[in-house]
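for the recovery benchmark. tokens below, seq after
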């Protein structure tokens, strides 16, 4: 899970609560990452974290986008879902659970 965040983004401020819910329900089951685009320093730090995680291509595709929480497949590094705006927690849960089911169904 990747939260695309900036301090100046009103939607990002709203999704802080959703992110807390995601952390409470999925911590330990999924990797949770925040890419912060508040300013150049936070963007540069987020770029370094993306590189460390092997998410450079994903980062380059979304750099500067805010107010979004993305589900990224840890194996392929491809985005499997993107939720933007202010939906309820249920929409996030469905996207995460669907991705988790996909991953576990591929394990021999």
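predicted aa per position
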């Amino acid at each position: 899970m990747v939260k695309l965040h900036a301090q100046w983004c009103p939607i990002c401020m709203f999704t802080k609560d959703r992110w807390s819910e995601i952390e409470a329900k999925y911590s330990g089951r999924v990797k949770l990452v925040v890419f912060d685009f508040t300013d150049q320093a936070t963007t540069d730090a987020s770029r370094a974290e993306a590189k460390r995680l092997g998410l450079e291509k994903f980062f380059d595709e979304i750099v500067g986008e805010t107010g979004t929480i993305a589900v990224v497949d840890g194996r392929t590094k491809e985005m499997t879902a993107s939720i933007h705006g202010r939906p309820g927690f249920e929409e996030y849960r469905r996207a995460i659970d669907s991705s988790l089911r996909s991953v576990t169904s591929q394990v021999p």
